[in-house]
Amino acid sequence: MNENCIRCFYSMKKSLQKKSEYFEKTYGMIPSFRAGLHMGIVTTGEIGALKKEIFFTGDVLNVTARIQKLCKQFHQELIVSEQLAKPLGKKGVDFATLGTMELEGRKKPVKLFVPK
Q1: Burial class of residue 1, CB neighbours in 10 A (0-12, 13-18, 19+)
Q2: Cβ-proximal residues to 86 (8 Å cutoff; 6+ apart), any chain
Q3: Residues 9, 35 contacting (CB under 8 angstroms)
Q4: Measured between alpha carbons, how far is 111 from 99 in angstroms, rounded to an integer?
Q5: Structural contact between residues 109 and 100, judged by C-beta atoms closer than 8 angstroms
């Protein structure tokens, strides 16, 4: 496992920052975003007879969405689950703990981290 998911987030952020003057001038605002990262098994499928569409489903998507929602509450741009932080930490990515949180619809609390 490598840290491409972390690099991707910061690369996208940097790309938006490079174009901030354009966005400000054209739209009167600079876009921003927050992200939650988690890992696990995702089921994919294809639906539709005439127009095919790919869909993704699984508990990991629900957990990730709930983690992402916490970004605003904790004033963080990126929050990572323990499940992902552990293997990334072994690869040299530094994290600070955000604490253990109860997530909506989950019986077991999830330990969350933010990149340093």
Answers
A1: exposed
A2: none
A3: yes
A4: 6
A5: yes
pLDDT digits (tens, 9 = 90+) for 30-89: 999 999 999 999 999 999 888 899 999 999 999 999 999 999 999 999 999 999 999 999
Q: Which residues pair with 36 in a beta bridge?
A: 79
Phi, psi of 73 (to 5 degrees): -60, -40
Strand partners of residue 55: 45
pTM: 0.87
Task: Report the C-alpha gap between 25 and 4 in whole angstroms.
Answer: 32
Distances (CA, A) of 75 to 5, 15, 44: 20, 21, 32
Residue with tokens 């127009």: 51
User: Could you tell me the domains of the chain?
Assistant: 35-115 (3.30.70.1230)
**What residues are paired with 110 via a beta bridge?**
101
Report d(CA 48, CA 55) in Å as an integer.
Answer: 11
Question: Which tokens is 27 given?
Answer: 């739209």
